[in-house]
Design goal:
- There is one protein chain.
- The chain is mostly beta strands and 293 residues long.
- Helix content is 0%, strand content 49%.
- It has one domain: 6 Propeller (Neuraminidase), CATH 2.120.10.
- It is built from no helices and 23 strands.
- A 4-stranded antiparallel β-sheet has the order 3-4-5-6, with no helix packed on it.
Amino acid sequence: MNTRKTPIERPDRGTTSILETLQVDTGERKVLREFEDVIEAPNWTRDGKYLIYNRNGRLYRYDPGSGDISEIPTAFAVDCNNDHVLSPDGQSIAVSHHTYEDGESRIYSLPLTGGNPVLITPMAPSYLHGWSPDGKTLAYCAERNGQYDVYTIPVTGGRETRLTDVPGLDDGPEYSPDGKYLWFNSTRSGLMQLWRMGADGSNPVQMTFDQANNWFGHVSPNGERVVYISYKKGDVEPDKHPPNKNVQLRLMPAAGGDFKVVAELFGGQGTINVNSWSPDNKTIAFVSYRLKA
């Protein structure tokens, strides 16, 4: 049985986090800030002005221009993991929060400016990954009866819909900008590889085929390219994405085809769990790590 550890394995607290951006066409990396503890999963706001990241279970807004940092008030949701996703209109954020009662991850939504989270998935564990472009549906990975699959649910809550049902771990579902497809990663072929299926779960197609474990395909806003994180075969089990590994960030056409390596770094879990493309399609944000002596 494939399992996903709960709570998610995070970089050690004896770790320095380095918030960076990467120009995908030139490979130029820029360090924005270093943190003396663990931050994870930066994503751009829709206007490109801020980066949102999680730190010690809470959410923060970072201004790359001024360097200012402000906490996003999340009321009781103070054990959020790195699965936060912004709404298409940029007004709301959905989070995966490990609830006090049982420690399991459930999905909530709240205003991006902060507020009281509203429960969306009563069933757990549920790990958020995608928000449909029309704003109506969330896509997530969930464990039900010992099996992790891709599910969707109305953003207002209600009955969840299971979209995958094959042996192995299916994880990381994220919508294409036109809403026609869900990209996800799956061990169904042996190693973890990227797949794409219809938004209703139809016609799954394998998109990567190399001898590596590939996770979290993030589609650029114009729908043309996909960036993802890749672990060397043998460094990890196919169904795990731990921290503190030598990994690559790779870029491939959304239509399929050859990839190119755009960055090599020490990271893994927390590096690029959510879509971190800038609105102009030129830059991605990510976190690399450095172990303290």
